[in-house]
């Protein structure tokens, strides 16, 4: 009986020590270079045609680019070193800052109207993204323009 008890004890002790020493496995989603290049080409076209000015979720964009959301998310993370939300918001804010340089009429538009024109779901998300990108609130920035 004692030999059986030793085996059971050994089994459980080795089982638990293995689990404690295991490191969490990284989520490694393997995407072929061909798929990455294809999606990057489509993303480039999306950016050039200013598709980001429309309300766009990760799932909608993945469908538009004919890929799946996991692949698209991973590719954006790897290629741009940011998540989807930051990627799309940065495109929108960058576009606005360039547009403000060339179009004086935009300087007189309300923050709410700008948010809508840029494809943001609400003013708060626009203001938060704008401040993250520029370091100042949109109203402060707009009021500082000549």
Helices, strands, pairings?
Layout: H1 2-21, H2 33-48, H3 58-64, H4 69-80, H5 84-102, H6 111-117, H7 123-134, H8 138-144
Uncertain parts: 22-26
Q: State the order of secondary-structure elements, H for helix, E for strand.
A: HHHHHHHH
Rg: 24 Å
Q: Report the CATH C-level class.
A: Mainly Alpha
CATH superfamily: Homeodomain-like
Number of domains: 1
Into which percent range does the helicity of residues fall?
A: 55-70%
Overall pLDDT level: 87
For the termini, the CA-CA separation is 90 Å
Q: What is the CATH topology classification name? A: Arc Repressor Mutant, subunit A
Question: β content, as a range?
Answer: under 5%
By DSSP, the count of extended strands is 0
Can you describe this structure in just a few lines?
This protein has helices spanning 2-21, 33-48, 58-64, 69-80, 84-102, 111-117, 123-134, 138-144. It is an all-alpha fold and 146 residues long.
What would you say this structure looks like, in words?
- With 146 residues, the protein is mainly α.
- It has a single domain, classed as Arc Repressor Mutant, subunit A, CATH 1.10.10.60.
- 68% of the residues lie in helices and 0% in strands.
- The chain has 8 helices and no strands.
- The termini are far apart.
- About 3% of the residues have low confidence.
